[in-house]
Amino acid sequence: MHSLATDVRTVGSILSNITATTHRTIEGWMNGILAVWLFGVLALSIRPLVSWRATRALRSKGRSLVPAQITKTITRVAERLRIRYAIDVTQSTLVDVPTVIGWLRPLVLLPASAITGLSSDQLEAIIAHELAHVRRQDYLVNMFQLLMETMFFYHPAMWWLSHVIRVEREACCDDIAVHMTGDRVGYAKLLLWLEESRNRSALPTLGMSSRGGSLLGRIRRIVSPPSPATSVGPLALAIAAMLVISLGGLLAFNAEATTAQETATTAVAPSDVATIRTFMNRAIEFEDWYRLLALAKRLAEQGEYNEAMEWMSRAPLGYPKEGTKGMVSPEWYYRCIAEICKDALQHDRLDFVESTSMIGISESSTLTWSQ
User: Which of 349, 271, 336 is nearest to 308 (CA)?
Assistant: First the structure.
């Protein structure tokens, strides 16, 4: 049993040393990592700007009126989808497939080929698909996706999740259009016609169009739809994973070095004085000063308050941002002193608390103890 406990402590010590070494290595490269991230964010920020300019051009150029019948179809479909604000529709020479842009003032853009080459039922199906994007607020979701892709461009899972969300978004709108028309085969043929009409060299925009997702996958899904559980699962998983990635990235970006060191010190919790001293010597050897302070607190818990303070005095104080490395912030140092003194008060060691010369601070210090 004693051998097993020794092995556990040894493994814990090795893991703690690896963690501390890794942290120091990352800390040394942090400025370079931050510079690369900022460069990536700035570079990818060009994409939304280009899309925004292209979207503005769609609102101001190449527009013409559509027949009154199409306007009536837009109104009828909007009522069925319970869209309560006005939606404009126009013919555009700048789009090759039906597209909807805008959030506060949605605008449906129809290419001339769709108006002249599709039947009224097919046009209604296309309009239902585009208005489904409006009903679901997909324009805002797409902007949020662009933001997340820009901030977390370095993570492959981010791009995979974004692709899955776009595919599922088109699938949801396809379902709404099929439900309103009731003709799965006809809608699948319509998607094939739209694919043949695509201009693959067109500039990307912030708008929603019927070009998202794999054509073969969409047609297969429409003709033989999967079970509801299967169709909902990937989207729910994608949204949940995106939230986890976002939260994890923000926490990692804002995490302080002291928190990382505190986590490393909890890997092993020796309870006897001899073992604690052994670990403290190793902490000094590896210049793991945060671990040294944590072990000093454990030594004080064994009643060795004065010795704990002597070990703590070996830790150099300073701030990494001032160009110093391998140092302990004064705030963390005095926090450890306060915790040791609090433990001493709980064990009626007033002599130790009153000997301010032993803990290296004066009565005018800003350090305060709370019971």
Answer: 336
